[in-house]
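[retry 2/3] Acyl-CoA thioester hydrolase: previous attempt timed out, resubmitting with same input.
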Amino acid sequence: MKYSKEYTVKDEHIDVQGIMDGLYYPFYMEYCRHSFIDEILGFNLENEAKNGVNMVLSEYTINFLRSLKKDDVITVTCELHRDKNNIPKLHFKQAIILNNKVVTKAVFSGTCVPATGGRPFIPETLKTIIENAPVLE
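[retry 2/3] Acyl-CoA thioester hydrolase: success.
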């Protein structure tokens, strides 16, 4: 299932060249991903942290294809994928789109860990959802 949200590029995210600083592309993806995790997966990061479960990133790759400018209205997408080796990881394929063209694409991978320390795991509440997700190739 592909999820998306719309955002407007903020003036404070623009660098001296008049384009969005590369630092902020992952932030817009994070905003969308956190909404996806909460609204679609039913995993509220704040509540889960209070209950001793932290969802953390383990890695990401990002490709910048075009630049964004102040006031650009962008669509950020997020789609869940499961790990091809059945490692306890969640993979989120994401893109930033402007005028029907992909500006940036990325894959963010993460897992859950006990707040007290311990091995990565996928909570039972997410296992069924992940089983139905496509495999990340």
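[retry 2/3] Acyl-CoA thioester hydrolase: The chain has one domain: 2-132.
[retry 2/3] clearing retry counter.
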